[in-house]
Design brief:
Low-confidence stretches: 12-27, 183-197, 202-227
Helix content: 25-40%
Mean pLDDT: 74
Strand content: 15-25%
Structural class: alpha+beta
Length: 308
């Protein structure tokens, strides 16, 4: 054996070991579903929702559910019209609703064309696959399987109608869970768990019809803080409201005119007193004038006598 051949063999073996070790050993199947793909299976009835299956719900990392799609099998000697043959496709939502495969490159999931031989196809719902071109199931996505075959040998490759339309032979796998919704719910729950609101329990006791006494019970939280509620205090008597009249310009003019009129109109007694006071002052002035005149005459006479 040549040296290049040995190097090639060692390289292939080493690469296979690396690929094997890169797949985690913790990958396992938690739930194994079995789907018997024949028209008599009650899960295809229209009056129930058994054809909608949730997978990977509550699984830990690297733990994935599996499904075995089991083809119909018949014993030898079964009549040909009683034998069912199907091709199962993975299709879009529009193709699922219309039972019509418009994509020429639709992925084939299973081919049940050997009715006298036990055949089943196992699908693992994981987000990655070690096989090139394998089917991957993303969390939070829905995957639609249908069969448009008519059941007979000549209707095996039919791509419109078939048992999908007549017997509702289609199924939905809902892969859990949407990472965005999971992160949102986690953030919301953590935020709400960090907020603590004190619980207040007021107790009302009526002693008299006009007096109300309010007491509260202190409530303590886990942090040891005591919260106390203080009721508002209201007076028993209603408050009195005083009203003031704001004077306007017209009212001010009337008030000034009234005051001036009051000054002009003195009482009779006060006016009489004023007149008497004026008369007394005039008489006193007259007397003083006479006195000064008489004094002047006396001085004049005295001066005349002295000069003689």
């Amino acid at each position: 054996m040549s040296r290049l051949t040995l190097i090639y063999i060692y390289g292939v073996v080493g690469l296979s070991l690396v690929c094997t070790l890169s797949v985690p050993n913790g990958v396992s199947a938690k739930t194994l579903f079995k789907v018997y793909w024949n028209s008599s299976n009650p899960i295809f009835r229209i009056d129930n929702t058994d054809h909608i299956i949730d997978v990977n719900k509550g699984n830990i990392p690297f733990e994935y559910d599996q499904v075995n799609i089991i083809c119909p099998v018949y014993s030898q000697g079964t009549q040909e019209e009683d034998v069912e043959r199907y091709i199962i496709y993975n299709v879009s939502k529009e193709e699922y609703d219309s039972c019509r495969i418009s994509n020429p490159n639709s992925r084939v999931i299973a081919v049940c064309d050997k009715p006298h031989q036990l055949m089943y196809f196992t699908i693992t719902f994981r987000s990655f696959t070690p096989q090139p071109g394998g089917l991957e199931f993303r969390p939070g996505q829905d995957y639609y399987f249908i069969s448009t075959s008519g059941g007979g040998q000549d209707q095996l490759h039919q791509r419109m109608g078939g048992r999908c339309a007549t017997h509702n032979m289609k199924i939905i796998f809902k892969v859990c869970c949407d990472p965005s919704k999971k992160s949102t719910s986690t953030i919301t729950s953590s935020t709400m768990s960090s907020v603590t609101f004190p619980v207040i329990k007021p107790v009302f006791t009526l002693s008299t019809p006009t007096t109300t006494t309010t007491t509260t019970e202190p409530v303590s939280t886990n942090s040891g803080v005591i919260f106390r509620w203080f009721p508002p205090h209201f007076s028993s008597k209603p408050p009195t409201i005083k009203t003031f009249e704001v004077p306007t310009r017209a009212n001010k003019k009337k008030t000034i005119q009234k005051k001036n009129g009051d000054k002009d109109k003195l009482p009779n007694q006060k006016q009489a007193k004023n007149e008497e006071l004026v008369n007394n002052i005039a008489s006193d002035n007259h007397r003083a004038h006479l006195t000064s005149t008489m004094v002047s005459l006396v001085l004049l006479l005295v001066t005349v006598f002295q000069t003689r």
